[in-house]
Design brief:
The complex is a heterodimer of chains A (535) and B (71). Chain A has 535 residues and is mainly α. Chain A is built from 21 helices and no strands. Chain B has 71 residues and is mainly alpha-helical.
Chain lengths: 535, 71
């Protein structure tokens, strides 16, 4: 049994108590399906922005990126630039229009002018293809982390995460999930800031000195300041860029958060705040990564020599926190990492439950003929069932290499969900036929190429050479989705396609906040809007 | 948006096809490379563009719908 880390237990226990109190509060306010799915669309733009950053910044964004910088230096900047750029895509192209078009899931927005049933099935498939592997990867990581930090077994760790996630989502719905994300985001950004300041203090805030020491310490020397250590070819680099640029705007649990605000203006504000917080945090990662190289490389207390950090490179930030702030600060960082996982799985679970109960049950099976109470019951039941399935799968996958599961969500989101959503919003000629062929082509190609690529074919299945040489296949799968969507749309001469094109103008007006939302729009802009003064 | 994506793809291309240049230190006595500084400048540009967009759209007057009863 691992040695107990009391600071980690204390911090994490505080987090659990605070979030359970909030869940109890949220449960009293969660009465309708609108409350459950989107917190009554009453969350403010700033709070939602913080919650989105909490949803988006997973353990991979913190522990993973620091570990990546520790090993590969320069190439980590590809991740950071693309992660930030992806939020410009969301801000400029998606946030406001999505909020004005949809209600609970992104399928609501896409099915406004396209045929609802097949589109909802496609959207649900895309959502579950993103959420399930992502959920599984997080739960396996949680079990492993729990085992290392709290002295409990892997299974107990998975059970703790599974039960807490079920309680948050089933009773508190989106309101509780939002507050879990907000608290987690504050802890993560606060912890990251303290860690970065600790690193900078060690070099008297001289960044050039920090970089020089990192180059001197790293086995690759000056090469860590040059590109090519991790991604040596253009296809890998562009595929990675596209996975982030399209993937963020296609992640269902992130998109769902834009329905929690009252209008498009608040949705835009949310995206801007999320982008600011995420950008700040990613810049901290650069400093923390440099600090990890300086203080951990060849440090016999934390490595077996060179970059061979105990527990793998993902533990670099955790070990660094011990050097910076001792056992207490390391315990705090560990608890934050665990809270991060818990918050992310709660968001994923809610989006998965919403697509099953709202898109599949209410939209497809009951064809929209179902009461608010029925749908709410199905949502809660879905959360419980999915949690049990998630727990069982995580136990089944104990000790397995699940790194591939972290690659899947972004690639699938970029190759299926994003192109369909984007084309529906911006292309008049986009038809249901194009959406279905495009969406399924992107989805199947993304999954197939990942299986044939190095992550699964070599690392999991044990073959010597991959059949597809790239880790991220987005350049091919996203392009195939757009191509199929275009081809099958322009060759669609059916009356339905003509009707869908004719409905585009009305959809655009609604996306801009007019039509049904006119009165809400007027409340925001007031009389100044009609007099042309603005606000 | 297109300009920002082009800049990022340009950065990707330079990082792959002009490695030596991107790895050159920005100044004598510094180990920080042109690529790292370029990447940070790119991040600053992306953030500035986003901030400009948000300020612009949140303060710009909007056309009123054709009719208050529309929809």
């Amino acid at each position: 049994m691992a040695e107990l880390n009391y600071p980690a237990i204390a911090t994490f226990s505080l987090f659990i108590v605070a979030t359970l109190v909030i869940t109890a509060y949220a449960a009293r306010r969660t009465r309708s399906r609108k409350d459950f799915y989107v917190a009554g669309s009453a969350i403010g733009g700033i709070r939602n922005g913080i919650a989105i950053s909490g949803d988006y910044l997973s353990a991979a964004s913190f522990l993973g990126l620091v570990g990546l910088f520790f090993v590969g230096g320069y190439d980590t900047i590809f991740f950071i630039i693309n992660m930030i750029l992806s939020w410009v895509v969301v801000l400029l192209l998606i946030a406001e229009k999505l909020r004005n078009l949809g209600s609970y899931t992104f399928a609501d927005a896409v099915s406004i002018r396209l045929e609802a049933r097949p589109i909802r099935i496609l959207a649900a498939t895309g959502t579950l293809a993103v959420a399930v592997p992502y959920l599984l990867a997080q739960m396996v990581a949680a079990g492993t982390l729990f085992e290392a930090l709290f002295g409990l077994s892997y299974v107990q760790g998975v059970l703790v995460v599974g039960v807490l996630m079920t309680v948050y989502v089933t009773f508190g719905g989106m309101l509780a999930t939002t507050w879990v994300q907000i608290i987690k985001a504050a802890l993560l950004v606060g912890g990251g800031t303290i860690l970065a300041i600790g690193v900078l203090l060690a070099v008297d805030f001289n960044v050039n000195d920090l970089a020089s020491q990192a180059v001197a310490a790293h086995p690759q020397g000056q090469a860590i300041m040059q590109p090519g250590l991790l991604y040596p070819d253009i296809v890998s680099v562009v595929s990675l860029s596209l996975a982030f640029i399209g993937g963020t705007a296609g992640l269902p649990h992130v998109l769902m958060r834009f329905f929690t605000v009252p209008d498009g203006v608040q949705a835009r504000r949310s995206a801007a705040w999320a982008m600011g917080i995420i950008s700040y945090f990613q810049l901290l990662v650069l400093v923390i990564g440099l600090g990890a190289i300086v203080l951990l490389t060849d440090n016999p207390a934390f490595t077996g020599g060179g970059l061979a950090v105990h527990g793998g490179s993902n533990m670099a930030a955790v070990h660094l926190s011990r050097i910076i702030g001792g056992n207490i600060f390391m315990g705090f960082i560990c608890a934050v990492a665990f809270a991060t996982i818990l918050a992310v799985v709660s968001g994923l679970m809610l989006s998965a439950a919403a697509t099953i109960s709202h898109d599949l049950f209410a939209g497809v099976i009951r064809k929209g003929q179902c009461t608010d109470a029925e749908e709410l019951r199905v949502s809660r039941l879905t959360v419980v069932v999915l949690s049990i399935v998630g727990i069982l799968l995580a136990i089944l996958f104990e000790g397995q290499n699940v790194a591939v599961l972290a690659t899947l969500p972004l690639v699938i989101a970029a190759s299926a969900n994003f192109p369909v959503l984007f084309l529906c919003m911006y292309w008049k000629g986009f038809t249901t036929r194009g959406a279905l062929y495009g969406g399924y082509t992107g989805l199947l190609l993304a999954v197939s190429l990942i299986i044939l690529g190095p992550n699964v074919w070599v690392n999991v299945l044990g073959y010597e050479q991959p059949l597809f040489p790239y880790t991220y296949p987005t350049l091919f799968s996203m392009a195939a989705c757009f191509l199929a969507a275009w081809l099958f749309s322009i060759t669609d001469n059916s009356p339905r396609a003509a009707a869908e094109a004719a409905a585009f103008a009305a959809q655009m007006r609604r996306a801009q906040g007019y039509d049904e939302t006119y009165h809400a729009w007027k409340n925001v802009y007031g009389d100044a809007a009609t007099s042309g003064k603005g606000t | 948006m297109g300009a920002l994506i082009s800049l990022v793809l340009g950065f990707d291309l330079l990082s792959v096809y002009a490695r030596e240049f991107m790895g050159t230190p920005v100044a004598a006595g510094s180990v920080i490379s042109i690529g790292i500084v370029g990447g940070l400048c790119l991040i600053a540009m992306i953030l500035a563009a986003a901030l400009y967009y948000v300020l612009k759209v949140n303060t710009a007057p909007r056309d009123a719908p054709e009719s208050p009863d529309h929809g």
